[in-house]
């Protein structure tokens, strides 16, 4: 389980469309999840300790960002052959157990993760209303353990700025997490 950091935000990079199956039986693309003021695309999975440490904070932040006009979607791109906890069936179980307030979709071919340049779970991509990248940083100071309850909410504050101004913060701290589990070709 290699820990990786996300690259620096490539401001203005345009979101790439997708059409992925959700655990709720529906398919999702950018238009179906984009909010009036932007979109948060998250690459997460079920087994990663970094994701598990912040799962409830992600849920909290997505709910609060929705009130500000920011839509959200979570994409699982890991190859579940070596990580059965990340199977589509288990994705559905986790989404129901935690009452995910966002679509949880499977990138079975891993093409979406590759197109986005996703490197780890969690990996956050925050787009403005024009679907231009404005945030590529961490949720907060959490690692494999949750940060203190009063930790600065980097992602939430950054996406609030995106909702209000269309632009993200100049300084962003990279997210860190488990590497995407790529298929052996």
TrEMBL record:
Q: What is this protein called?
A: AhpC/TSA family protein
Could you say which residues form the signal peptide? none
One Pfam family recorded for the sequence: AhpC-TSA
Which positions fall inside the Thioredoxin domain?
9-144
Which species is this UniProt entry from?
A: Nitrosospira multiformis (strain ATCC 25196 / NCIMB 11849 / C 71)
From the Swiss-Prot or TrEMBL record, what is one GO molecular function term? Answer: oxidoreductase activity
SUPFAM superfamilies per record: Thioredoxin-like
